[in-house]
């Protein structure tokens, strides 16, 4: 990890720890105030607890032009991105995406779409989408694309857990962490009015709600795929499925939430102050948001036009975006969901049973 980023974040954390004005803002400050000295692992843990709500910055009396020049949201954002890059496996892919995310995602989507279009020439083995691309071909492509990123994430999270000196997990740790995740509590900056991400010193729940739409939309889409897999292999119910079946209901509702949430997040990000985040990773963050949003959007378009002559081309484009998303998951900002969960689990371990 980059020592200069750690040292600057440590300097700011020590000043914040002495001030303690922001004590109730989010999970960062109770964790920060629990000690007086910060190891590299402590700083990394604080950085991954931070949700970049920016409430502490607008409340701080030591920001520029004060000589302390505090900008804790940016300092922690830089350490956070550096931690994802340092713990990722293989590491060079993570560093490349965060600086050139949009171009990499677009190139891979188009490249994989062309690949699916070429595979289509071998013919299908069923109805609906399987008439354009066989079920066996989809499994042969997507099974490795799902398993390999999971292995990569496991390696990265294991490195993180060792670095922050995580202990054996308890059931209470999971309950505490997932309760915060479900409500996106730390995106409220400790206030009932919300956080300060896109409106500076004005409070708003917009970013919190946009994140919830993306998270629950993604989970619904994943549930749709999982249910469809069980119906196919266990119940011998072959796709395509009618509208009022569980895979379709979950998938359509998830696709709408995912598309709307990503569009909302992109709009909020355009309104936010870039200098309160990691400026080096802004391209990667936008690339990830647009990629995830396109996965949902292309899926919805495919659903609407799936019975037309456009279906094969739309299917290739949608599957290209899905394959790109899976393969890049450990190296894009999608990894933040896993690392932030790990940070909340580590934080929960400090709560006595």
From TrEMBL:
<feature type="transmembrane region" description="Helical">
    <location>
        <begin position="213"/>
        <end position="234"/>
    </location>
</feature>
<feature type="transmembrane region" description="Helical">
    <location>
        <begin position="286"/>
        <end position="305"/>
    </location>
</feature>
<protein>
    <recommendedName>
        <fullName>Tricarballylate utilization protein B</fullName>
    </recommendedName>
</protein>
<feature type="transmembrane region" description="Helical">
    <location>
        <begin position="139"/>
        <end position="161"/>
    </location>
</feature>
<feature type="transmembrane region" description="Helical">
    <location>
        <begin position="311"/>
        <end position="331"/>
    </location>
</feature>
<keyword id="KW-0472">Membrane</keyword>
<dbReference type="InterPro" id="IPR012830">
    <property type="entry name" value="Citrate_utilization_prot_B"/>
</dbReference>
<keyword id="KW-1133">Transmembrane helix</keyword>
<feature type="transmembrane region" description="Helical">
    <location>
        <begin position="246"/>
        <end position="266"/>
    </location>
</feature>
<dbReference type="InterPro" id="IPR036197">
    <property type="entry name" value="NarG-like_sf"/>
</dbReference>
<feature type="transmembrane region" description="Helical">
    <location>
        <begin position="101"/>
        <end position="119"/>
    </location>
</feature>
<keyword id="KW-0812">Transmembrane</keyword>
């Amino acid at each position: 990890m980059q020592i200069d980023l750690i040292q600057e974040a440590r300097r700011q954390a020590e000043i914040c720890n002495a001030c303690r004005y922001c004590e109730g803002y989010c999970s960062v400050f109770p964790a920060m105030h629990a000690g007086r000295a910060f190891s590299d692992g402590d700083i990394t843990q604080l950085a991954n607890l931070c949700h970049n709500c920016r409430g502490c910055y607008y409340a701080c009396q030591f920001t520029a032009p004060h000589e302390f020049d505090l900008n804790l949201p940016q300092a922690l954002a830089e350490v956070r991105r550096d931690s994802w890059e340092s713990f990722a496996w293989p590491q060079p892919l993570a560093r490349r995406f965060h600086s050139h995310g949009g171009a990499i995602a677009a190139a891979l989507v188009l490249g994989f779409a062309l690949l699916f279009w070429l595979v289509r020439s071998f013919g299908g083995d069923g109805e609906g989408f399987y008439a354009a691309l066989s079920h066996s071909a989809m499994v042969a492509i997507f099974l490795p694309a799902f398993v390999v990123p999971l292995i990569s994430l496991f390696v990265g999270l294991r490195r993180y857990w060792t670095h922050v000196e995580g202990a054996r997990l308890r059931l209470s740790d999971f309950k505490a962490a997932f309760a915060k995740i479900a409500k996106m509590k730390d995106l409220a900056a400790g206030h009932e009015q919300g956080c300060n991400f896109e409106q500076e010193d004005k409070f708003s729940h917009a970013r919190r709600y946009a994140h919830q739409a993306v998270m629950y939309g993604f989970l619904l889409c994943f549930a749709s795929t999982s249910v469809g897999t069980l119906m196919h292999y266990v119940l011998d119910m072959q796709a395509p499925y009618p509208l009022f079946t569980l895979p379709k209901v979950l998938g359509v509702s998830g696709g709408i939430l995912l598309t709307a949430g990503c569009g909302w997040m992109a709009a909020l990000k355009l309104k936010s102050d870039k200098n309160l985040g990691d400026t080096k990773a802004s391209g990667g963050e936008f690339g990830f948001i647009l990629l995830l949003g396109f996965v949902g959007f292309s899926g919805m378009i495919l659903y609407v036009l799936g019975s037309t002559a456009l279906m094969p081309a739309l299917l290739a484009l949608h599957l290209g975006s899905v394959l790109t998303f899976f393969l890049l998951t450990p190296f894009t900002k999608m990894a933040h969901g896993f690392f932030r969960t790990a940070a909340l689990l580590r934080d929960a371990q400090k709560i006595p049973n």
